[in-house]
Amino acid sequence: MFGSKKNDRENLIPSLAAAIDRAQLDSAHLSVGIPCNEASEIIKDFKRNEIHLYDGKLGAIWEVGSLSELYRGNRQPPADAEMNRYPEEYVPLFASVETHVITACNVAGDRTDEEFIAIYTAMRKYPDGKDLGIVHRIVWQSAALALGFQPYSQEETEAAFAQLARSARHWRMGASSRNYLAYLRQHFTK
Fold first, then answer.
1. Which pTM value belongs to this model?
2. pLDDT, tens digit, for every residue of 106-127?
3. Domain ranges of the chain
4. Which of 105, 125, 145, 171 has the fewest CB neighbours in a 10 Å radius?
5. Long-range contacts of 175-184 (CB under 8 A, 24+ apart)
6. Cα 160–184–182 angle (5° rounding)?
């Protein structure tokens, strides 16, 4: 998902680089794996900070204490109007979250637009706060993976999650609508 160019390797958080090297993972195809039992049922109480990395063949666990420890630098994000267009430098973060959302919902069941707004708002305001369930944990882990590969500041990450919440809000038609997820499936599964 992230690529394996030399500059990507230089940007890796050391603990992620170590997990990749220990398991000899292909970082070009790395994603968050959802822990399942032998019957392919999701393990519902998996730990948020134990990220199951998977490259399509091999897996490993990357332990992350908090999302906030992965923030790097103090770069400021663009204005909301520009963030609304998903600027190229933030595509890895947006893509990591939104592609993993589809996978999480395929395994754990679809969530409403309201639930996505709540998850993204929590990720913006309290990234290491209360656990809101399986999909929230996968969003947290996918954000950690993106932050492990690219140097995003706290402000940039908050702005990205504010945009994701606006996106979910844009698609909301009512308390039970699932239009945001339908849009993601259409967009990412062409």
1. 0.93
2. 988 999 999 999 999 999 999 9
3. 6-188
4. 125
5. 175/112, 175/114, 176/112, 176/114, 177/112, 177/113, 177/114, 178/110, 178/111, 178/112, 178/113, 179/113, 180/113, 180/116, 181/101, 181/102, 181/105, 181/110, 181/111, 181/113, 181/116, 184/98, 184/101, 184/102
6. 130
